[in-house]
Design goal:
Layout: E1 8-12, H1 16-33, E2 36-40, H2 43-52, E3 57-61, H3 69-78, E4 87-91, H4 97-105, E5 108-113, H5 118-202, H6 208-240, E6 248-251, H7 252-265, E7 273-278, E8 282-285, H8 287-303, E9 310-317, E10 321-328, H9 346-349, H10 362-372, E11 376-380, E12 388-395, E13 419-422, H11 426-438, E14 443-446, H12 449-459, E15 463-467, H13 475-484, E16 492-497, H14 502-510, E17 515-518, H15 523-534
Parallel strand pairs: 1-2, 1-3, 3-4, 4-5, 7-9, 13-14, 13-15, 15-16, 16-17
Antiparallel strand pairs: 6-8, 9-10, 10-12, 11-12
Helix pairs in contact: 1-5, 2-3, 5-6, 6-10, 7-8, 8-10, 12-13
């Protein structure tokens, strides 16, 4: 044990001989008892030593010039760090009761009378050294305990944080699993119907009516699959703020009526009482996105209204704004759910009936699309089983006196333009080529970009339909190469892609394409695009 670690004893005496006698006595037991001895010749020097060291005990002479023992003791105990140091007063005379009281009031722990008896000195000092040693051990143990407590607290915080992170990750994983299971369910339903209808068409005994019905089912369920994919893509676009609106002036009432006709044609509205009250109401909006809004609201009302219920659909022009309201007598919305109905995936996490189907993103898309149009949407319900209503408000536009006449259908062209189809998906390429051929278009097709460029140079079509995701060279490079060739630069290029963001459309046009169509492409839209490209006055 070093001197820094040993308990220290301070001997204070102005008489050099007495000081030497006491320190010598104490030094002879220092190694055995494990302490160190320091000395001071005055009260002031004792105070300096107390400032520098901690002491197990101080042997303090009472009769000193200047600052006597009592004054020194009082000064030592006034300092917080040294207030508890035990002091043994050393005096040459027997103190009376008054002196003893005075000494104890100054912090005396004991008295020694000179001449000092060595055994008594040793015994008294040993008690305080042992006490100091024990206190130091306790202090170190308390310090270690404090360190350990700090470590355990930090570990506990870390474990708590890790548990919270793990719970959050498990919640996310659970939500992901639920959503994937829900998505699988939503995809399997139309796929099952398509598969069954396709098998029915191939049966030898299937009658014309059954085959026609099967074709309708395939077409309808394919559209349903397309809507599911569109919803997923639109969710991503809505959350990243990348939805691009193609605005035009249109009548919301006519658009909602068309959406309602679609629901009626599919038999969705047969078991409900529909009350429709619509007046012409014009807005500047994207017809596709506004159709999504109306379709989602009507679909939501049908899902959560039991058969026999009532659904009210109203469109009104208030001169300040256009109002679309869909009200039902269905299951209603609880007070807890109401503030969250427009949150993503809220359907899967709260109390709406999952058996009703849907991805739980329809209302979230509605809110985002309405906001992109500069409008607002709100939900109202008196609670569970009390029905609900959704109100959309959009900025009003000036009415259009007469809609421009529709362009002549592609079939009216005197000469059908020659088509080159560049598509790597064998089934998709075969079906589109067959369909275009059925409409009277001369069609050739290629399975990759390099073959497509070579065929374009030899075939010189009027219009090339080019898939973007091609093997070898992609559709962008196909367009660039065709635009660089003297013989092929005149070919009208239509991009067919599954990517529909604004950046994707920009890249398509920058690569040299004339038009950008997102898969799956409706045949009417495709023929219209071909007709526009083939028309002599069509804009580039």
């Amino acid at each position: 044990m070093t001197n820094l670690d040993k308990p220290k004893i301070l001997v204070v005496n102005d008489d050099a001989a007495s000081l030497l006698a006491l320190t010598s006595l104490l030094d002879q037991w220092a190694d055995e008892s494990g302490y160190a001895v320091l000395s001071a010749r005055s009260g002031q020097e004792a105070l300096r030593q107390v400032l520098l060291h901690d002491f197990a005990v101080i042997l303090l002479d009472v009769n000193m010039p200047g600052m006597d023992g009592f004054e020194t003791a009082e000064a030592i105990h006034q300092r917080a760090r040294s207030a508890d140091i035990p002091i043994i007063f050393v005096t040459a005379f027997l103190a009376d009761e008054i002196d003893r009281l005075k000494a104890y009031q100054r912090g005396a722990a004991d008295f020694l009378f000179t001449p000092v008896i060595p055994q008594i000195l040793h015994a008294k000092v040993q008690v305080f050294v042992a006490l100091a040693t024990k206190n130091e051990e306790l202090r170190r143990q308390a310090h270690k305990l404090s360190q350990r407590t700090t470590e355990l607290t930090a570990t506990n915080k870390r474990l708590t944080r890790e548990m919270e992170e793990r719970q959050a990750a498990e919640a996310k994983s659970h939500a992901k699993d639920e959503f994937l299971a829900m998505l699988g369910h939503e995809l399997r339903n139309p796929l099952s119907a398509i598969s069954s209808a396709a098998s029915l068409i191939g049966l030898a005994g299937a009658g014309p009516e059954s085959v026609a019905r099967a074709k309708q089912i395939i077409q309808r369920q394919s559209q349903h699959l397309s809507r599911i994919v569109d919803d997923l893509l639109d969710l991503s676009r809505a959350m990243s703020g990348k939805i691009l609106l193609d605005k035009q002036t249109l009548d919301v009432a006519a658009l909602v009526s068309a959406c309602l006709d679609t629901f009626k044609a599919t038999g969705r509205t047969g078991n409900y009482l529909l009350n429709v009250d619509m007046e012409p109401a014009w807005v500047d909006g994207d017809p596709t996105r506004l159709e999504q809004i109306a379709t989602n609201l009507i679909d939501n009302a049908l899902k959560y209204t039991p058969p026999g219920g009532t659904i009210d659909i109203a469109v009104s022009d208030t001169e300040d704004e256009i109002v679309l309201e869909v009200r039902d007598t269905g299951v209603g919305i609880s007070a807890e759910l109401l503030p969250h109905v427009f949150d993503v995936f809220v359907q899967g996490s709260i109390t709406l009936d999952r058996a009703q189907g849907g991805l739980g993103i329809g209302l979230a898309l509605v809110r985002r699309l309405v906001e992109l149009h500069g409008g607002s949407v709100s939900a109202h319900s008196e609670g569970a089983s009390a029905g609900s209503s959704f109100v959309i408000r959009l900025p009003r536009a000036a009415p259009v006196a007469a809609l421009p006449g529709a362009a002549p259908p592609p079939a009216a062209l005197e000469h059908k333009p020659a088509i080159l189809l560049i598509e790597d998906n064998d089934d998709g390429r075969e079906m589109m080529a067959t369909m275009l051929g059925a409409y009277g278009y001369p069609v050739r097709h290629a399975a990759d970009g390099v073959q497509g460029v070579q065929m374009a140079a030899s075939f010189l079509p009027d219009v090339a339909l080019v898939d973007i995701g091609l093997p070898g060279i992609d559709g962008y490079e196909v367009a660039r190469r065709l635009r660089q060739g003297d013989a092929t630069r005149h070919i009208k290029l239509i991009a067919l892609t599954g990517y529909g963001l604004a950046d994707d459309q920009r890249r398509v046009l920058e690569a040299g394409f004339d038009k950008h169509l997102v898969k799956p492409v409706d045949i009417a839209h495709l023929l219209d695009a071909i007709g526009q490209c083939a028309a002599p006055t069509a804009p580039a």
